Amino acid sequence: MRKKFVLFILIPAVIVSIIVYLFIDRWITSGLEYAGEQAVGAKVEIDHLHVSINPIGLEFARLQVADPGDGWKNMFETGKVKFALNFGQLLRGKYIIETMEVNNLILGTTRTTDGSLPKPITPASSSPGLTEQAASMINSQGSNKAASFDIEKIKRELNIDSILNPNNLATYRRIDSLKKQINDAGVEWKATLDEIEKSKSRLSEIESKAKQINVGAIKDIASATNALNNAKSILNDANEVKTSFNTRKSVITDGVNKFGGSINDLDDLAAQDFRNVVNMARLPDLSMNGIAAMVLGKDLLRKAYEYLGYVEKARTTIHNSSDKPPIETPKRLKGQNIYFHAERTYPKFWIKKILISGGTDQTNDPQYFYAKGQVLNISNDQCATGMPLTVNLMATRGGTTTLSFDATFDRRKEPAVDHYKAELTGLAVHEMSFGRSDFLPSKVTSAIADASITAVVPGSHFDSNTKIIIKNMNLSFDRDPNGLVERLVHDVLASLKGFTVDLRMWRDDHKFDVAFATDLDDQLASRTRQVIGNEVAKIQNDLRNKLNAKIGEKRQEVEKLFEEKKSQVTGRLKDYENLLNDKLALVEAKKKEVEDRIDKEKKKQTDDLSKKAKDALKGLFK
Amino acid sequence: MFWLKLVTNFIKILREGQTPAQVAGGFALGSILGLSPMFTLQGILVWFVILVLDVNLSAATFSLGVFALIAYIFDPLFHRLGYFLLANIEGLRALWTALYNAPLAPLTRFNNTVVLGSFVSALILFTPIYLGMKKFVIVYRATLGVRIRKMKVYQIIDRSSLVQWYRRVRDLGSVL
Asked: Which residues of chain A lie closer than 8 angstroms to B102, CB-CB?
């Protein structure tokens, strides 16, 4: 053994111990501030941190966490914070805190120095996040133009001749097309009728053949049978002609019926033309759907969009653990840490409970603020703890405004699920923008708001429902209303003391969407009908009558053409059919005559035979 | 200057002084420190062993420097070996899990791919390095040292102004 080993061990050990003792507080402060700044994205400052040895723990006098959105404000600051580490787990390289007490927590305090940090460069994501999708949704909604409600202007600018231009009317185009089709069909029908006409000579032939059968000349059965066969043959010929005629008649009749149906369908087309004409005339929709959303929605959506940023941050910063992580390419000599958690063991980092309380002096400050709550199970691996991160907070201001906030962040299995529930009551709204720069800009000067929000974030999906009730509202308008619709909305809003808004935002596999409903729509619609309903109806009737007259005139053309062609065709068909039936009746009659003659001849021969037989029998018995 | 002294001390030790086993022991233990990242529990233990055992300190320090350079070059290999041992061998998983959840063992940072890969490599290389170094010291002292001193390259370096300057500075201390 080395003799001077004590000197080699003891002296460095003592020096190291002294250095550690002197500087450990500063090192830990720097480490915690750095970790906090990485997580929050703004300055984190810890004052007077002290590490105690027995029990091993930490305490500090003050913690300030700057707001990443406004560097001159703190997201929150605390008073004294104290906690002890589990020594047994510290030997295992794990940081386990049973209970952490956070006293005098105050939100949104003003800072004396700027707490912003340079924004980190983040790699572009392949799929847009919630906030990006929400922003594009807001922008697209903002581009909607207000419908015109100025009746005088509508009347002035309404050019009926231009709107009723035949090029704009589908009925017109259809009638022209029908006329052409009927003319083409007329040519075909004429050709078919000419073909039918040609068979008239055959009918004459049949008639003459039938007349040639002379029933009076039939003297015996044999000649009668010949005459009958002749008659049947002529009848077959006649039936052939009839079958051919029926086939051609059926083709023509179908064509005629088809055109008749097409002409009747013109009514539906004319109705469609009327709707198009009303659209082209830009007549306002008296239902007023979406006007309230347009007036109120954008600002509320923008507020919601700000909070979506926090939701997304929570979703992406709280990670799941994995059994076998994929191999990485770490920096030189840094390596990759692989974690080996067992059931009912501790994760690397776990704060089991943080108790939070704080507020301003209730006795001296009528608008005192008080908050309390707890955060449970902050850990780097929820699979190891078996418990999700849970936040329960309650805050009140001046005894009138209350906020309760509950959230769980579950990373124990895929997909990760976050739940949020917040209830806000009695929030005094001192100033809130309304409307848009191009449509009735206004602001709420005073109101009381209640809100309840629930949100579920399973994996990359998102579904939130918000109900906001505004009460005791006073509005001021930035300028006088322009046009009727602004005046209407102005009047309705000015007479209002409150309203309700339901806002649903969700994202599924395909896209982000927003549904906005408010009771203002009904009020606006009823008011609109009162003021401009009759005028709009009058313009609509006028348009309808002119359109009907124009279409009626054109329709008469096609109906006249159709009737003309139809009567020509049906007349000729009827004539031929009568002729054919006459000839058939003639042949039938001739055949019947021959058959009767045959029957008569047979009867006569039977009578002769029986007379001869009787005579023969009489001679036999004499 | 420190490194120059370290090298000359090491060459001096190769010639005379401590036994070949002490020199080889210091060199092999230093190789463990050099190959593994600093500031691990096992690193402190190896330092403790070096200080407790009467091995050559110059050889250990020299070896630490040389093998730290080698470690830098072979770092990706150590990372892959460490990942293979930690993540790909199912049979070892129970051992790693037990160690990870045992007291003190996590302080060795064995669950880091580079730490484990380099430490395992150092342990495997320990015996060959020890035996090879021991053999080298014996041969150097018997024949190789004389041959090297006779080599032209050695003589050129030996007469170089840098070495002469170093000697003057070194001897200055003894004169004063």
From this structure: 92
How far off is chain A from B81, nearest CA to CA, in Å? Answer: 11
Q: Taking the CB of residue A438, how many other CB atoms lie within 10 A of it?
A: 10
For residue B109, which residues of chain A lie inside 8 Å, CB to CB? 337
Quick check: is B162 in a domain? no
**In-domain check, residue B71:** yes
What pLDDT sits at residue A133? Answer: 63
pLDDT in tens, A219-251: 777 787 888 888 888 888 888 888 888 898 898
Domains identified in chain B, total number: 1
Residues in chain A: 622
Contact yes or no for A300/A362 (Cβ under 8 A): no
Interchain contact, B96 vs A340, CB within 8 Å: yes
**Does residue B37 lie in a domain region?**
yes
Q: Say if the Cβ atoms of A324 and B97 lie within 8 Å.
A: no
Bigger pLDDT: A477 or A149?
A477
**For the stretch A76-87, what's the b/e string if a residue is b when 16 or more beta carbons lie within 10 angstroms of its beta carbon?**
bbbbebebbbbe
Q: Per-residue pLDDT averaged across B14-30, rounded?
A: 87
**Of all helices (H) and strands (E), which one includes residue A135?**
helix A130-142
Using a CB-CB cut-off of 8 Å, the residues of chain A touching B82 are 335-336
Note down the domain range covering B128: 2-142
Chain A residues whose beta carbon lies within 8 Å of the beta carbon of residue B107? 91, 93
Q: Which residue of A8, A94, A333 is in closest CB contact with B75? A: A333
Does B17 map to a domain?
yes
